[in-house]
C-alpha cells in the first residue's frame, strides 16, 4: 500500500478528521493537502492516499462527500415539498437515476 512507499504519512486521527471535514464542504481532492497546509512530501503522499481505493483517507473522504450529498438531498426534498420547481426537478431526476440503477 502507499503507506509502505511513504512511511512519513502515518494514519492520524487528526488527519482523518480533517480530510472528512474538508470533504463535507466538497473540497476537491487536489485542494485537500493545500487546505491542510501539509509539507510537500506529505502533500504528495496525501494525494496518493486519496486515490488509493483501500486507503483510510480515501474512505473518510468519500464518507464526508456522501454525507454532504445526503444533506443536500434532504434540503432539496424539503424545498420540493414547499413548491420549489427547481428542487422538484432535481429530486425527480435523482429519483429516476436511482430507479434506473435498481433495474
Summary keywords:
103 residues, mainly alpha, 6 helices
Short description:
The chain has 103 residues and is mostly helical. It has six helices and no strands.
Question: Can you walk through the features of this model?
Answer:
This protein is mostly helical and 103 residues long. Helices cover 74% and strands 0% of the residues. It has helices at 2-5, 13-24, 32-35, 40-51, 56-81, 85-102. The radius of gyration is 17 Å and the shape is elongated. The N and C termini lie far apart (35 Å). The model has no long low-confidence stretch (mean pLDDT 91).
**Gross morphology:** elongated
Tally of alpha and pi helices: 6
Order of helices and strands: HHHHHH
Distance between the termini: 35 Å
Instruction: Briefly note the structural class of the backbone.
Output: mainly alpha
Mean pLDDT across all residues, rounded? 91
Our estimate of the beta-strand percent is under 5%
Radius of gyration: 17 Å
Instruction: Give the number of DSSP strands.
Output: 0
Low-confidence stretches: none
Q: Main sheet, how many strands, which sense, barrel?
A: none
Helix content: over 70%
Amino acid at each position: 500500500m502507499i503507506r509502505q512507499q511513504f512511511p512519513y504519512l502515518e494514519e492520524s486521527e487528526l488527519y482523518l478528521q480533517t480530510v472528512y471535514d474538508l470533504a463535507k464542504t466538497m473540497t476537491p481532492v487536489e485542494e485537500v493537502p493545500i487546505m491542510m497546509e501539509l509539507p510537500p512530501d506529505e502533500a504528495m503522499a496525501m494525494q496518493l492516499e486519496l486515490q488509493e481505493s483501500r486507503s483510510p483517507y480515501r474512505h473518510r473522504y468519500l464518507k464526508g462527500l456522501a454525507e454532504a450529498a445526503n444533506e443536500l438531498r434532504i434540503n432539496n426534498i424539503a424545498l420540493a415539498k414547499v413548491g420549489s420547481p427547481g428542487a422538484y426537478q432535481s429530486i425527480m431526476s435523482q429519483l429516476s437515476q436511482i430507479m434506473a440503477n435498481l433495474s
